[in-house]
# Entry
Amino acid sequence: MALYHATLLPGFDFGDTGSFQTTVGAAAITARDGYPLYFAIGQMFLWLTRAEPAYALNFASAAQAALACGLVVLAAAELSGSVIAAIAAAIVFAGSYTFWSQAVIAEVYALHIVFVAVTLLLLLRWQRRPSIGRLATFFAVYALGFGNHLSMIVLAPAYAAFLLYSAPRGWRSMFAPHVVALAAICACLGAAQYAWNFQAVWSAPQPPRTAVDAFARFWFDVTKSDWRDTMVWNVPQSMLADHLRMYWFDITQQFGALLPGIAIVGLGWLFRSDWRRGLLLSMMYFSATLFAFSYNVGDSHVFYLPSHLCVALLIAPAVAALCSAIPRPGFAATAAVAVACYGCVRIYQDYPALDRSGDRRPSAVMTALTAGLDDRRAILLTDMNWQVQNGLSYFGKEVRAELGYARMPDVMLYAPVLVADNVAIGREVTATARARERVAAAYGPLLRTEVDPRVTTATLKDLVSGLPPGTMYTLCVLKPTREFSLNSTDIAEALGTLSGGLSDAMPAGQYSAVVGRTGERPALATGSDDPFRRSVNLAGVAIDVRMESWLAADTIRRMGFGHVVAARRHTLIVERGVSFAAFDASGAPIRSGYVAGIFAPQARYLIKMARGIVDR
# Structure
């Protein structure tokens, strides 16, 4: 818990995290929001901490992650018969990159791992000592897990098979009327969690006319059918080889190249000692991996988490296997301590990169965009990247409640009337860049726009200019997402300014990074189409450049797409597009900024009625 709390994101974030932080505490949770159990627990943490929603929900993830690690110890001990080996496995999992990154922000995956671990533990204990009470507990907890994340269904084949081939009175006993009834009751009680969401369907501005229509709307929204149908099992065939390479990158990012091999040894030992348990872990691993592998979304890496859990759990049986092969006194403890030390070393190495305790970039972006606005004097019309829009939703609700804003697509049909009415009462109408483009395209000369001079947007030239000679800096360029584009001329000029004319071209590749001191030739200039890690010592300061993403598949990385760590300080979170930081000998940023990405500063515009048009 201390590990996650020390690296906890202090406030709100963009993307789904911002949406969760905005929604928690609401009286009605729509079917589109889903996750009723997650929000119910979030409300409990909101009440207990008395903190702002963003922090309360981030803290809830940290607590859930700590609980998950405790459950990993119990499950691994059940599999291996060794508590010390189980603790070592839990340490390895606790420090795995993706799990750690989800444990410090408001996300559903820490709680998801709680349910994966606890249902596995309940199944193993039921197998060891079968009883109807233990079976009922498993059914109930498994059904409860669906209130947090519907991907619990991915585990159904493994769990169902294990119940059938482990039933003490044969597989037919699992279809006895009282067992079927028990499973059905638990399933209904689990589904009842969504009554909260279903109620919101009837509270919509245009409620359904019939119960059938209401259920159809509910199912469409709660399962997000409009986009899941195009993403589940929809990875293009041309991308399959790339996804295989991505998986190897992902698994080594969590555990290095050594531990996955050790986990295979553990699986072999498990099959030898109890083939049923070996088959259960195998099916869990392959079903979770196959689902994530075939899921064509921008953050597919988080769906590998259950498979990461399986790998970590198998480390404990691997230690047991080594002990049975080398039956020397004290060897079991030595092997477990060695694995635990390996996990601790990885935690030490990753700590600076996964530390988000000082990350207030979303707040800085929103503060700059909304500077000087309040609903008495102005409104803001927005059309932004959905991740940034979610951040604005939280910012406008919890930080700047006096802010008046609306999404441009929602008001597009009557934008001239909206502008005219606001101007008539002395209120300005401002717009983000994309909202301004939509207005110009739709209404042409009817509505004129001009740059709002109160908002300054630093260009790349502004970021790199005026730094004293010898200032340490890093400039990273990653292939941007489709909605953004790079200006190679600006990047070359910026590098020329930083290096005093000694370099003017970024290294080739989807990932490229330059580290140096202003006025000197760069000490490190590297580029690649694959993620990499590079280290350089600059004037006695150890600097690590870490690319921690797979750009062919990742459009969303809550932890950032890479990191620059200087003097063991998290100096720069690298995003897609251009990321820059100038820093001192302690690694503290002196100046930093982004271009061509979601954290880049946004221009703001004033929208006015064209001259000569007095009334609507």
